[in-house]
Amino acid sequence: MAESKITLKQPRKVTIVASIVEQLVENIQNGSLKPNDKLPSERQLIEMLGVGRSSVREALQGLVMMGLVEIRPGQGTFVKHNLYTYIPDLTKPDLSTNLQREMRLQLIEARRMIEVDIAFQAASNASDEQIEHWHSTFDDYIRYIDDFSDPRYLAAHSDFHLLLADMTQNPFCVMLVRTLLQAIPQTLREREFTFPKELNLQQLREAQVEIHRAILEAVANRNSPAAQEAMESHMNFERDLVLKVYPKKLDS
What we know:
Layout (H helix, E strand, L loop, with lengths): L15 H14 L12 H8 L3 H13 L3 E4 L3 E4 L17 H29 L2 H17 L6 H16 L4 H12 L3 H7 L8 H20 L3 H22 L7
Antiparallel strand pairs: 1-2
Helix pairs in contact: 1-3, 4-6, 4-7, 4-9, 4-10, 5-6, 5-9, 6-7, 9-10
């Protein structure tokens, strides 16, 4: 089987592995690499990218863990034949810290693109009944926030964002938010509140409550710009938390 002709550029120096992954994913998404296509060999990737073997191997490992490619012993690395929707699995323990960090940051940016505008539209379109029900969900969120492994907390947190999407009166917004929430691994929440030790658990909980309260109050007051701003702050908080939990290390 002939190897596909793809175009790669030298990766960004601060996140070499993530840059390699991004480029290969982009080639898969735009059709340059199709199902069953063979990727260049490790040696070829090293020459094309100008990076070390460890970075190439880690990037390929990441693609395997994400379910995009498979390694066939004695043949090479191939794009999986049954690709449908690209939703990375962030719960895989074999992913490197750097790669987990970059994937989580990308997920937050995807949420930002969608949920900030959702908050704006919800403040304009929500019914009184929807807002009343939403208040009940927020009360549950506060009630169970002391235990992040409690299924009641997890359900209340998801419902908070799903009900907000529902208040746009656009069912496709609910579908999008549900997909994004399903991609958020519980392992991140577990790690956030056990590591690093310098993070104050109580302060984090209080900050989470106030962030969600600000979103709720802005929507309840029909203040679309304020709702948009509150959701933007929420995404900034999530991003800063990932940066604290997953400190950056330069790839070799």
